[in-house]
Amino acid sequence: MGDAKVVRHDCRDIFRAFKMAFDPKKMFLGYAGLLASVAWCVVVVTFFSALKLISTTPDIFIKLIFYSAKEDISILINSLLSVIMPLDFGEIFVISILIFGLLAIWSFVGGAITRIAALDYARDESVCLADALKFARKKLWSYFWSPLVPVIGVFFFAVCNVVGGLIGRIPVLGEVVVALGFPFALISGFLMVFIGVIGALGLCFMFPTISAEGSDAFDAMSRAYSYVLSRPKQFLIYCMVNMLYGLACLSVIAFVAWLMIRLALFTVGLGMGQKLHMVQSFIAQKCNIACLGFCSATSMEAKTAIVSLDHWSLKFLAGMVLVYIFSIKLAVWSFAVTYLFSAKTIIYFLLRKEIDSTDVTDVYREEKQEEATAATSDTGVERPSSSEDKKEIYPSNEGAMPNS
């Protein structure tokens, strides 16, 4: 019989997220979610760029996987700024399509991951992948709408201020109305800041809330705001520990992946010689595939040299190397995703125990609900015990003479 897991019910439990993130079911879900996200972005951008609504090319999303973390951040920021800054209606529409699609993907994937993490941490139970996906499917709309509730709140108060500004277009009367009602605009501004900032901080608790409680989007939002506001110091401590430990774990995983890629290229290159060097140089012109944050800058000679592959077999080799390294790098990012969901689930349970005094092992179980439903008659009345059944079925036998 294996040793039971040590659960301390304090910030040290966050260190368990590293091992929890390596659950094959979570890694599969994270990998599938990233693949679906990249595919969704490529398809949407390709479609709308063909319609001339946007000028962004779909290869930017593939490069985000290939490049290192610091390269990813700069490329992503520059790409988003180039798309968002003009505020063209078509570009805003495309961004909205992308966001809603990604939210639907990660509502399903994130819901399943946090469900597995909740049962793993709270009750040390291993739920099968099919059950986790079934739970995420049932609660999909709750997962989907919970992050949107703060956005809707900010948008509502923003629209109120816009309407007030439209009234200000009326000559004389409108200016007087805006002058007298401007304090309400300031209050709306404060509410937008409050709802937006606290909602962004508590966003990490919304999926774990639904996975642990089996509740809806409103309960997820209320708990997210309550936990951040009730224990801000504890919340910040947990998040700081989570961030530092997560970065350290991701650095280790990224270093192992980088070293694996470099050793594979180096040892195969010893045997293959100049051919593999040409393939590496050709690929390096497109992206620095072996870089995971631990490589030096590309030399000027490598940047200026132009390498072309003449034979189809070398091009095939280059393409397959790209596919293999893309898969490895995607696995690194999938670990980051599964770690994030696992750690946030642990933090949710810790804060729930401190604020609501709820036992950590208290998790919503569908089996209990099904048993309660099965124990209830079709009319909604509880089934009586066996002795009561006899009294109801044979009321006229009481006091009757026994048969001779």
Q: Could you explain how this protein is built, in words?
A:
With 404 residues, the chain is mainly alpha-helical. The chain has a domain at 10-139 and 233-355. It has helices at residues 17-21, 24-50, 59-66, 69-84, 89-123, 129-138, 140-145, 148-167, 173-202, 206-213, 217-230, 232-272, 274-284, 300-304, 312-356, 366-374, 386-393. Helix 2 crosses helix 15 (312-356) and helix 13 packs across helix 15 (312-356). The protein starts with 16 loop residues before the first helix and ends in an 11-residue tail after the last helix. Residues 292-304 and 381-404 have low confidence and may be disordered.
Provide a concise account of the structure shown.
By secondary structure, the protein is mainly α.
Rounded mean pLDDT score: 79
SSE order: HHHHHHHHHHHHHHHHH
State the helical fraction: over 70%
Q: Give Rg in angstroms.
A: 28 Å
Alpha-beta classification? mainly alpha
Kindly, what is the distance between the CA atoms of the first and last residues, rounded to a whole number of angstroms? 61 Å
Helix count from the secondary structure assignment: 17
Q: What proportion of the residues form beta strands (DSSP E)?
A: under 5%
Low-confidence stretches: 292-304, 381-404
Give the tally of β-strands.
0
Largest sheet, described in full? none
The shape is globular
Region (Disordered): 367-404
Keywords: Membrane, Transmembrane, Transmembrane helix
Transmembrane segments: 28-51, 92-113, 143-168, 180-205, 235-261, 316-342
